[in-house]
Amino acid sequence: MTQTTIGLQQPALTEDQRHEAVTALVPATVAGMPPTAQSFYAVVRSNGTLARGFEAVSAAHLGTGIYQVIFAHDITGSAYLGTLGLDTDSGESPAGQIAVVGRFDAANGVFVQTFDAAGNPADRGFHLAVLS
Question: How far apart (Å, rounded) are the C-alpha atoms in residues 123 and 47?
Answer without folding.
Answer: 7
